[in-house]
Design a protein that fits this description.
Blueprint (H helix, E strand, L loop, with lengths): L4 H17 L2 H11 L11 E9 L6 H10 L3 E8 L4 E7 L7 E7 L6 H11 L15 H8 L9 H10 L1 H9 L5 E5 L10 H10 L12 E2 L5 E5 L4 E7 L5 E7 L2 E7 L24 H7 L5 H4 L5
Parallel strand pairs: 1-4, 5-10
Antiparallel strand pairs: 1-5, 2-3, 3-4, 6-7, 7-10, 8-9
Helix pairs in contact: 1-5, 6-7
């Protein structure tokens, strides 16, 4: 398997900061190690990572995808989420040991005039595609870009106004390109943990609260892709205050997803030790993703007792 040092470092930078914001990652990993299901975090297969973007000039999917296309990713199926006013694409990695990538985009022009005005009040300072200023051959620049703000801090009032209309809009405008979630590949775990039903029971025994929108397990129509997720960790967000200082409020951060990709019918007779990634259900499912998005919604984070 070929490695891409730049991609390796970029993914490492994303995961390092993500784990700092999502303590449940270490909680789940430690529990798996304690049960001898894995030896370390390195034994976990990352099915995919996801980003949220804002569909305004010079930003959105068309901008962010350039980073990953440069690393050899290939754009695949498009998705539309009508009620949430979102579009998305997923991207296949250059090698199977890298995670898939899912990038969604808020259709800003479908929001109310007030919500659009709030978003543009922050993003208007982006007058050209910011990726054009990044040397994509230098992972340090990519890493810095993915963790730097392109506009000023939001006010708490603006955040709350957006939250009331589109929780995705409030999350994306505040969190920018912070990793929205990473995904544990459940079928790659050992027996006893390698079905989503078993793994969800394991998580709930740990006291982890699962997103129950549409049911704790979201299943594709063909039954081959099963997904679940934790509710987002609540983090302390910093906002502009009226006295030119800052104030802090609790907001939704990121979460963990879990995916079970079942073997395709044409390969069902293959011995278990011969099953490879190409033998399993690929891609994503709009119906599943629609409910997974709600892992950051207040209707879910308000349930978290962990």
């Amino acid at each position: 398997m070929a490695n891409s040092p730049g991609l390796d470092q970029t993914l490492h930078g994303l995961m390092r900061r993500y784990k700092e914001r999502v303590p449940s990652v270490d909680k789940v990993t430690r529990a798996l190690v304690d049960c001898a299901a894995i030896h370390s975090q390195d034994d976990i297969v990352n099915d995919h990572i996801a980003f949220r973007t804002i569909g305004v000039p010079h930003l959105g999917i068309a901008s962010l995808e350039k980073v990953f296309l440069a690393y050899g990713y290939e754009r695949r199926d498009p998705y539309r989420f009508e009620a949430k006013k979102l579009n998305a694409h997923w991207y296949a990695p250059p090698e199977d040991h890298y995670p898939r990538i899912f990038i969604s985009e808020l259709c800003v022009n479908e929001l109310s005039q007030n919500a659009q005005a709030i978003i543009h009040n922050y993003t208007h300072v982006v007058t050209r595609d910011p990726v054009e200023r990044v040397n994509l051959d230098q992972w340090q620049q990519v890493d810095k870009f993915l963790h730097s703000s392109l506009w000023q801090l939001m006010t708490w009032e603006d955040y709350q106004t957006l939250l009331a209309e589109s929780e995705y809009a409030a999350w994306a405008l505040y969190n920018r390109y912070y990793l929205n979630h990473y995904t544990i590949s459940i079928h790659d775990l050992p027996d006893g943990y390698n079905t989503l039903e078993e793994f969800n029971a394991f998580l709930e025994h740990l006291g982890v609260t699962l997103n129950d929108s549409g049911g704790k397990i979201k299943a594709s129509d063909d039954g081959k892709l099963l997904q679940s997720s934790t509710v987002a960790q609540v983090v302390e967000g910093e906002f502009q205050s009226s006295n030119s200082g800052t104030e802090c409020h609790e907001i939704s951060g990121s979460y963990i997803e879990f995916a079970e990709r079942r073997v395709l019918d044409e390969y069902r007779d293959l011995p278990a030790d011969q099953i490879e990634r190409r033998h399993r259900r690929e891609g994503f499912e709009a119906g599943n993703a629609d409910k997974i998005f709600e892992s950051t919604y207040t209707t879910q984070t308000g349930r978290d007792k962990s």
